[in-house]
Amino acid sequence: MESVLSPAASSTAPRRRKRFQSWKWAPYIFISPFVIIFAIFGAFPLIFSATLSFAQWDPAAGFGAIKWIQLDNYKFVLTDRWFWKSLGNTVYIALASGLPQHLVAIPFAAFLSTLLRGRNIVLGAYFLPFITSSVAISLIFSSLFSKDFGAINAILMSLHDHLPLIGQLLPDHKVDWLQNTEMVKPTVSFVVFWRYVGWNTVLYLAAMQTIPEDLYEAATLDGASITRQFWHITLPMIRPMMFFAVSLTLINNLQLFEEPFILLGDNGGTGQAAMTTAMYMYRTAFYFSDFGTACAISWVMFVIIAVLSYGNNRLFKLAGGED
Amino acid sequence: MASLSLRNIKKAYGNNAPVIEGLNLEVGKGEFVVFVGPSGCGKSTLLRMIAGLEDITGGDLLIEGERANELHPSERGIAMVFQSYALYPHMTVGENMGFALRLSGMDKRAIKEAVGRAAEVLRITHLLDRKPAALSGGQRQRVAIGRAIVRQPKVFLFDEPLSNLDASLRVQMRIELARLHRELGTTMVYVTHDQVEAMTLGDRIAVFNAGKLEQVGPPIQLYREPRSTFVAGFLGSPKMNFLDVETAGAVAGNLQLKLGGNQSLDFGRTPVGTLPSQLTLGIRPEHVRVVPAAAGLQARVDMVENLGDTQLVHTALAGSEASFSIRMAPDAISPRVGDVVGIHIDSANALLFDRTGRALELA
Ligand SMILES: Nc1ncnc2c1ncn2[C@@H]1O[C@H](COP(=O)(O)OP(=O)(O)OP(=O)(O)O)[C@@H](O)[C@H]1O
Ligand SMILES: [Mg+2]
């Protein structure tokens, strides 16, 4: 067969192939940075943690120490008192910080959208916590909420003494916001609420600004008061954004870690009252060196978040009459 | 009693020069008045002031004899149809139409009945359960009108309601609007840029210019006896031809006019009162005839457009570069581009204006 190839053909073929190949590979080279980074930091941990969740492994002992134990990690997690407690804490804080976030952000955004001037300054002020480091925020709040020297107790005490009537409703002793088991969860929830309310306001304001002005004019002519317009025009029109914002809150709050971790330390405060599931997972991995169980916890959380997000999706679709 | 009275109405935004100044207009009960005028002259602003969506800076607005300046929009007994339709996207057609009634606390059965009746008038009964997104432009427009009808207003306001529709749908909706006005007999105020809509729908046309009312009257009157070059030029397509002329004396009621390029014209009639030396002659394209070159004013043919039902010949008169158009019958033998032709002006239909643009009364 070799003799059949003409000299001309064999001399042009390699040259053409070379040019063709560099052209062919160029696109892959351009997209390779993303693919490589995603493979290392995205796909690999995902697959590795899924694998590990079926194994017992102390990383200090090397890869040889991986022992396959099937579903034992999951069985353990689902019967673990501490897991359920941390999940309870997480759900408590998620609701106590998440619900008010939206209940405040929506009317607040509606108010801001009526402001003609100063809107961006107010918005910026509320958005600031979102872009501030959570370490700085937690440090500030640690000092504000401090029992003996904190500004919050000082203000409450003085209001108790000097404000007539409602002053009596305020506590007459210094509240131990960060140590008292009863107070820890509300305190953490407040910080989380405070941090994200501005973000949600920005989302809702953006949605409200896309509502055409003539809808409100038509509603005015139809006899709708400002509150009726809010109910019948604004709320239905921002429904897609509500779905998006609530989904984000759901996903973020169920993975809550930084604020309680820095505010209360790695054990989640007195009696682990504010130890979230994410913190528990962190402790399981890095304190108890039980990576298999930690991976199982994260996958259980994944399922919970996925189910709740789906439920959220259905809820919004139902409320909007499915369109 | 007038359905709508505008007395010395003024509008200024902030400290800017007023957009509308000293406007007076009476709209009779059941009348259909069309607002026309160049873009930015304040038509929408005026309509929105009547609706209550815009504050009135000065003057009085009376609706059925009662001062309405300070009344809330929903209490004025007016309904407005927006150019953008402004339908509530999350409500069905039926809910859209019944929204005002629902807010007023009417019971469900009565609302359904009222909506059903309006839907029948507009032939959209089969669409009542759809959302606006699932409607065509024409259907949306009908729903927007239906939403206005349901409230049984004293006055309908329309701001360019058909301008988002294609040409054939526009004609169809125009005819339906005329029918609707006949059936309901409600007062309507209608803003449009469309000459044909203005001429066919209006009992009267109000021509605006820079925030002032230039002239109000029945369409034919405005077309035949415009009070100014502005109104004369605004109505009719192609525009009325204007020629700058000089008077060369009048002999026994016969005015002699001098045109550019040493041409002269025997006008036949003469204005009442003093005779200015500088005049503007106005003549519509349909009142001009093409004659042999020696028998009329000399003109060069620049372009011939055959529109099927009519031919438009655009020419330039000798001694002038302004375009001068002539309408010819579709089957007439039209001149060719570059030809020099004669033009005969039918002075019985011509108008004379002084140089400020005011029409002169002719004897
Ligand atoms: N909110 C406002 N602030 C300042 N000026 C305004 C405002 N709204 C309208 N104007 C001015 O008022 C004038 C009239 O506007 P309007 O919308 O009534 O014109 P229009 O006759 O409806 O024009 P069009 O035919 O293009 O719709 C314009 O010169 C416009 O710039
Ligand atoms: Mg307008």
From TrEMBL, chain A:
It comes from the Bacteria. GO terms for biological process: transmembrane transport. Residues 87-312 form the ABC transmembrane type-1 domain. One of its GO terms (cellular component) is plasma membrane. The keyword Protein biosynthesis does not apply. Its main location: membrane. It is a multi-pass membrane protein. InterPro entries: ABC_transporter_permease (IPR051393), MetI-like (IPR000515), MetI-like_sf (IPR035906). Belongs to the binding-protein-dependent transport system permease family. This is L-arabinose transport system permease protein AraP. It comes from Amantichitinum ursilacus. The gene is araP_1.
From TrEMBL, chain B:
This is Maltose/maltodextrin import ATP-binding protein MalK. Pfam families: ABC_tran, TOBE_2. InterPro entries: AAA+_ATPase, ABC_transporter-like_ATP-bd, ABC_transporter-like_CS, ABC_transpr_MalK-like, ABC_transpr_MalK/UgpC-like, Mo/tungstate-bd_C_term_dom, NA-bd_OB-fold, P-loop_NTPase. It is an enzyme of class 3 (hydrolase). NCBIfam families: PRK11650.1. Its EC number is 3.6.3.19. Gene3D superfamilies: 2.40.50.100, Nucleic acid-binding proteins, P-loop containing nucleotide triphosphate hydrolases. PANTHER family: MALTODEXTRIN IMPORT ATP-BINDING PROTEIN MSMX, MALTOSE_MALTODEXTRIN IMPORT ATP-BINDING PROTEIN MALK. The keyword ATP-binding applies. Keywords: ATP-binding, Cell membrane, Hydrolase, Membrane, Nucleotide-binding, Transport. GO terms for molecular function: ABC-type maltose transporter activity; ATP binding; ATP hydrolysis activity. GO terms for cellular component: ATP-binding cassette (ABC) transporter complex, substrate-binding subunit-containing; maltose transport complex.
